[in-house]
Amino acid sequence: MYIYISLLEAFLILFLILINNFKIRKYLSIAFLLAISALIYSIYGIVVSLFSYLLLYSILYFYNSKNYLIKTLPFIILFIIAIEYPFYTIQGFLFSIAAFSSLLKSKGKSEKIKEINRDLFQLTIGFIIILSYFFLRENFSYLLFLVIVIGFYLGSLISTNKSNPLYKFERSGVTFGSGAIWLGEGLLFSIMFLNNDYLILVIIALFFGDTLSTIVGVNFGRHRIKYNKKSLEGSIAMFLLLFLISVILISPVYAIIYAALATLLELFSKNIDDNLLIAIGLTLFFLFCHPAFLLYL
Length: 297
Known about the structure:
By secondary structure, this protein is mainly α. It has helices spanning 2-18, 22-40, 43-61, 69-84, 86-99, 112-135, 140-158, 178-193, 196-220, 232-246, 252-267, 274-288, 291-294. α1 (2-18) runs parallel beside α5. 40% of the residues are buried.
């Protein structure tokens, strides 16, 4: 049942993001959150999930406000809840961000230098996370979740300060930190349903495969897909990197399927952010396709 709930939750989140009307999306997100929570939690869990939803909702609502107090108080309460009830809190996070997806819409084109700088920064963060996985493996997913919670709050604090150095990594005409928020939501979905061994493969795809695809595509891309202007060269680089890394950790057949799926999700993402789509797609793949079965292909 748990596996099918993950599939239902993924469908509901993606469905919410594609709805243009904010009011409809807001009310549906609450209804979906309550429905999912009712399937897998007690009444107590439903209350905690809804409360977490409202707290994050308030932080996102005042995302561009210069009043730090109205951001800080909800965060303190949210962080305390997250420490004690991490998985209830993740439910609230997922549906709250989906409800506020219009906040994160892109409004302009990216510059080449900023694109590369942002990807190099993302690679650095990826290396730090991988190192943390090896040193803190037992509590890795729990600590990663708390870091994401803190990251949401810090992003909201510096979003109005355009003199902060992180602004040089952001695309022009885009809400500051929107890519990081989608990345965080994707990781939260994976944390919810995967153990650390599978979670690390999702992280590799997001921080290394997706990033390399962009760097190669921006600098060497010659063959573009009309659907979303992404390059075949970038996709080939992403596939090769993911295969070469994952074949060390899993069977060759499984590595090929994993690398191909992540590459296709990145290549054909358009209306839904590729970070979110890759994370959800790979999570569902790992849940429904056990490696023991794939060894016989």
